[in-house]
Amino acid sequence: MPAYEGPWVAVAGCGYWGKNLVRNFAQIGALRWLCDTDDEALESQARSYPGLRLTNRLEEVLDASDVQAVVLATPAAFHHAQARAALLKGKDIFVEKPLALRYAQGRELVELAGERSRVLMVGHILEYHPAVARLKEVVRQGELGQVWYIYSNRLNLGKVRQEENILWSFAPHDISIITSLLGAEPDLVSASGGSYLQSGIADVTVTNLLFAGGVRAHIFVSWLHPYKEQRLVVIGDRQMAVFDDTLREGKLRICDKGIEWQAGRPVPRHAAETTLAVPELEPMRLECEHFLECVRERKRPLTDGTNALRVLRVLEASQRSLEAGGAPVALADVW
What we know:
The protein has a 9-stranded mixed beta sheet. Strands 3-2-1-4-5-6 form a 6-stranded parallel beta sheet, with helices on both faces. The protein has 2 domains: 9-124 and 283-304, 3-Layer(aba) Sandwich (Rossmann fold); 127-282 and 314-333, Dihydrodipicolinate Reductase, domain 2 (2-Layer Sandwich), CATH 3.30.360.10. With 335 residues, the chain is α/β, with parallel strands linked by helices. The relative contact order is 0.15. It contains 9 helices and 15 strands.
């Protein structure tokens, strides 16, 4: 295998999620710098991957001539300012989701990346999951028939955030997949939830999305749940699909089930389930390799800024609805 020849990357944020990005970029051979304000987190990763340059200051990374691309795995509240600083320094950037905590801030970053001809990619990791890629094919080829509705549950006990609520922490994954599967943004959004651990920071939310043509989706997210669940179900008028990311095997199934009308009465049809074979590849590794390819070849990422803005728009509409006690919010009102 030929030696890696670039582009070279710095990872800022070596904690809960960042350490996984550190591992992947280090294994690829692309990693040059590590940055974190927490000395313990920084030194822990440095012990695992010796020879890297270390700093507590992002400014030092942005001034480094041997770094072409910066990966931001810092708290979401810092994404906008840090991504903006990186773009102004001429760096290509990979930003963990969400791109920002305001739609207007995200739009500013997308416009700046375009003006500076920089690659801007957002870490909507499930877009790189082989099972999600296969599910998109199934929907696109019409195997499920007309899609009626989609529901997604993303539940766990922790990790509880203090910078953003559960909606902004968990739901970006599901919004990204659902809008990608349908190839559209919803027209109307409503969201409700509860704050039990910290005042003003929702621990559980249910978001309802209404799309043109009557297609609906709902997203249930919680970090106050007794067990882990990561399941997305797509209901079509012919068949149904289930993506369950907590399973070790058989993550994607097609269910030949539905309703048939017999003598004017709806009768459930229970037939076989088919488990679809998908490559056993790590989504994050595919995501990291895709970013490096886009930087090297100046390509537009699958999860580029435009993709991130679609997700941000739904998130902001959902947040407005949450703050208004569940009142519906039109996406057309979010700018």
